[in-house]
Amino acid sequence: MNTSSNNINPFDKVSGSAGLYSPKGLVLLFLTVLLIAVIITKLKIVGIGLLFALMFGAFYLYKLFTNPILGFYTAIGLNFLILGLTRYVTGLPLGFAIDGVMVLTFLALIFSRFRERVDWSPANKDITFLAGIWLLYCIFQLVNPEARSVEAWIAGRGLGFYFFFFIILTFMLINTHKKLDILLYVWGVFSIIATLNGMKQLFIGVDFAEKAWLNAGAAQTHILFGKLRVFSFFSDAGQFGGNQGYTGVVAVIYSMTKKGFAKVFFIIVGILGFYGMLISGTRGSIAVPLGGLMTFFLLRKNIKVLSFGVLFLAIFFVFFKYTTIANGNDQIRRMRSAFDPNEPSLQVRLNNQKILKGYLASRPFGGGIGHAGDKAQRFLPNAFLSHVATDSWYVLIWAELGIVGLLFHLFILFYVMGKASYKVMFTIRDPITKLKMSALISGMAGVMAASYGNAVLGQMPTALLIYATMAIISNPETFETGNQENQPEISKT
Predict the structure, then answer these.
(1) Residue 239 and residue 379: Cα distance in Å, rounded?
(2) Phi and psi dihedrals of 299, rounded to 5?
């Protein structure tokens, strides 16, 4: 059988010097050199930069179309950086970069099976079906009688589109322990960079772009009593704190599946994640380790482990709630205020929720995607919802998609969490797979808990990480070690 005729990827062809044996190859080489010479002559330094950019772009596209998972990891990386970049690069729609990478990744998937149909069956799961319904509901918001701005809907498109399409990409691409580990390494590297950048802001100071962002209005919420709430290159300190706490929970538990360098790496990621959470000054982020670690202790199904965990969390709670130890530290003092039921900002949030309750009582489908909170003021400066702070992720969903959307959203989250937890506790036998799934489940549980106080769950970079997590924990059987391809290169210690 002629295997060359069965090449399923049109990008896997004869390349390199072999192509120069034909006249067409020589002519192409000559024209390329001529084009390069003209560009450098006309544009000089700019031309050289343009050439390097074109060469890198061409190389990246080639690698992407021969190995589509590169697009998945690229999306994860951009997911961390894109909002921070908007402080330095203005006037460009950088937010669409994620959309572009996802589209290219889907195209790469299709071209990688160019001569045969793509097998989409790995994505044929109940969570994909639920995400599809959610996407349709988000599209329906375009004709919501309360919605007034298509631009606002476009700005909030990720709420439906990213959820649905990134879950499909995760099912199709992350299906071995090695690929899952790489995902966690990419996540961990960007988390380390985020904390280091946050430390730079805290100990050295903010740069010109960050200062301009603060001066434009962000200082009102990010400089309190003369102290900076660290935000790194995230959208705000709340997202930074919540995401770093999320990373801390996942990385510390994930380190239990590793040894040697990998174990040390994930422990460092976890410690720096928790430190980033602390210096963010975000009180609500404390719910991430509390909710995440309690979930992990429950998943272990071990009375001794559970008892130790409850004792640890009780000491943690008492430390913040009933003592004044380390109150000289600004970050700890602010975290401690999260345990005060009479804290002024909490009362403001509760009052805002009462206002929204009255407004939304006759609006079961909400006010429209992108129509609530401060972010809506650039589209609808005089609208009612754009002048009521939402703060909580769930309150934001309630305001924009109504009680119908909120209930369905919560159903999806708890359905995925419940089913995944049941599988880890009662059906998955491999201890390494159990721990890896437990790490992701626990991290998601922590984010869900923290999202009651802050809009963490659906914003970058947490959003894509949560969507990938939902797909992975919905299909833990894929990572069972019975399949030799999925055998992790680690010791079960």
Answers:
(1) 22
(2) -65, -25
Q: Please compute, for residue 406, the number of CA atoms within 13 A of its CA located in the half-sphere on the CB side.
A: 19
In order along its 493 residues, the chain shows pLDDT tens digits of 444 444 455 555 555 555 544 566 556 555 565 665 555 555 556 556 666 677 777 888 888 998 999 999 999 999 998 888 888 887 777 778 899 999 999 999 988 777 778 889 999 999 999 999 999 999 999 999 888 889 989 988 989 999 999 999 999 999 999 999 999 999 999 999 999 999 999 999 998 989 999 988 888 888 877 788 899 989 888 899 999 999 999 999 999 999 999 999 999 999 999 999 999 888 888 889 999 999 999 998 878 777 877 887 788 778 777 787 777 777 677 667 666 666 667 677 778 888 888 888 889 999 999 888 778 888 888 888 888 878 789 999 999 999 999 999 999 999 999 999 999 999 999 999 999 999 999 999 999 999 988 888 988 899 999 999 999 999 999 998 544 444 444 433 3
Which conformational region is residue 319 in: left (phi greater than 0), alpha (psi within -120 to 50 degrees), or beta? alpha
What pTM was estimated for this model as a whole? 0.85
